Amino acid sequence: MTKKFLVVALLLISFFYASSQPAAKFGYVDTDYILSEIPEYKAAQSELDKTSVMWQKEIDTRYAEVDKLYKAYQADAILLTEEMKKKRENEIINREKEVKDLQKQRFGVEGELFKKRQELVKPIQDKVYNAIKAVAEKSGLGFVMDKSGQVAILYANSKYDKSDDVLVYLGYKK
């Protein structure tokens, strides 16, 4: 009996407390749109794309060389001694390992492309985040959601879109 009374009392206190608090204001931004309007971001993204394509071509070329070695080995296998076969197999295995290591070095989780992205893009993203924070505080918003990310916004009234305010704050729009 006292346990039920305690639960009901806690629910009532929670309800009255929640209803007495002012509702938090929400706003949203589209970071894809914001970043697409910033020339430095476009330049950084372009540089990353060029670097990525160049490195991928280098890796593709090396894989093609390994494939060429393997096909030559298959064609010559009948004529080779066991010792020569083993030597060429090891050469192919080592070349393939070198290419995989290079691929991991360039495109791995902590690879060179990731580091280059951190170097070029992160300062811009930090700048945008700080601008979003400043606009949210100026607008009295409690929460700001990103329309471009994984968060699904089924409906959004454009008067709550703060993307242009962020661009104005950053000096990219007037």
**First-residue to last-residue Cα separation:** 65 Å
Report the biggest beta sheet as strand number plus sense, adding barrel if it closes: 2 strands, parallel
The radius of gyration computed from the alpha-carbon positions, rounded to a whole number of angstroms, is 29 Å
**What is the 3D form?**
elongated
List low-confidence stretches.
none
Structural class: mainly alpha
The number of helical segments is 7
**Average pLDDT for all residues:** 86
- Strand arrangement, major sheet: 1-2
- List the secondary-structure elements in sequence, H or E: HEHHHHHEH
Strand content: under 5%
Number of strands: 2
Main attributes of the structure:
174 residues, mainly alpha
Q: How would you describe this structure to a colleague?
A:
There is one protein chain. The chain has a two-stranded parallel ribbon with strand order 1-2. The model has no long low-confidence stretch (mean pLDDT 86). It starts with a helix and ends with a helix. The longest helix is centred in the N-terminal third of the chain and has 38 residues, at 39-76. 71% of the residues lie in helices and 5% in strands. Helix 3 runs antiparallel to helix 5 (112-120) and helix 6 packs across helix 7 (163-170). The protein has seven helices and two strands; from the N terminus they run H-E-H-H-H-H-H-E-H. By secondary structure, it is mostly helical.
